[in-house]
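Posting this for the archive.
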Amino acid sequence: MRQNTLYLIIGALVVVVIALGIYVYREQTKPKGVELKIDDKGISIQQN
């Protein structure tokens, strides 16, 4: 029972590290500048 808990904690930590890595990678590769969206709500402009 004790080993299963340890494996569960290690697995959860691995998942958190992978998710954080993906988030950081996406934030760093996001294009800089202005984002222009045109949809059914109208036109929206966002600065990145």
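Residues 2-28 form the longest helix (27 residues). The helical segments are 2-28.
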